Description:
By secondary structure, the chain is of the alpha/beta class. It folds into two domains: 3-68, no CATH class; 71-331, Spore Coat Polysaccharide Biosynthesis Protein SpsA, Chain A. The protein contains ten helices and 16 strands. Strands 4, 5, 6, 7, 8, 9, 11 and 14 form an eight-stranded mixed sheet that branches. The protein has a three-stranded antiparallel sheet with strand order 1-2-3, with helices on one face. Strands 10-16-15 form a three-stranded mixed sheet, with helices on one face.
Amino acid sequence: xNPIALYTNLVKKMRLNNVEIKAPVKLHRxxxxxxxxxxxxxxxxxxxxxxxxxxxxxEHYHVAYPHNYQFILDEPDKCLKQNPFLVLMVxxxxxQLEARKAIRSTWGTETNxxxxxxxxxxxxxxxxxxxxxxxxxxxxxxxxxxGDLLQSNxxxxxxxxxxxxxxxxxxxxTRCPQASxxxxxxxxxxxxxxNLMTLLxxxxxPKQNYIxxxxxxxxxxxxxxxxxxxxxxxLYPEPNYPTYLLGMGYVFSNDLPPKLVExxxxxxxxxxxxxxxxxxxxRLGLEPSSPPDPSQFKAYLGKxxxxxxxxxxxxxxxxxxxxxxxxxxxxxxx
Length: 334
């Protein structure tokens, strides 16, 4: 699906969820195109101007550019109040309340690690389906209770993970520039914040232009239309992705989000969000850094071993209950 078709599909889904888009943006060169979006979840009307400059090497793309979306649920002053050293941004589906509960009772409770302030926020899009209104009401209540939900007005689907990731980068840019580091971490992850903080406080860890996690090199682009990870050539023509970090969890210096947001205007969006971030990093002339101990960013845990969880920074788990059970065991006194 090309960027215009992707946007058209997004508009149709938003209308099904009571979000009206007037005068949808089309890609043009040498023009300024205006879009007016009226969102019935809020009382505000947002007008977004997408400036497309005369550039012989690139066009500006609107689908993944986060300034074209607005926050319905927001915590704009949270960083001013807490002044975090590290912000954990957790993309999660609107319906995944149990995952959020598990994180709030495990690694999301850790707000001070080795003397540094840590803040955890959950990022969702608009719920879809027949129960979308009920789900939205529950999200509103959850936001009032916990004050840790961010919601933007794109439809929350797998294909829109790239939008969600760039919205995360935009929030860090506009609401939390004072943080030293950010982390995008999935909701099904175990996170050992002690080990992560040890890495970040190491004098050898860069404070700028830094991003690390599980590094993927020379990964082939999937062309099979039956695959979940299918990307057509018109969206990404190269046979291999640039070096990128597996989206399960990567940490970065907080000077990177505004740079990624800016360069995203010139990168044609595609639906493999971690590879898309890798393309943005490449456009910046940067390379992801391998962690000092690559085994600390572990894909799947397999059989639980306490010693493994004491050594890692992240690993993928199977369920919210598994996170709670492992957390209790890892934190017990020996």
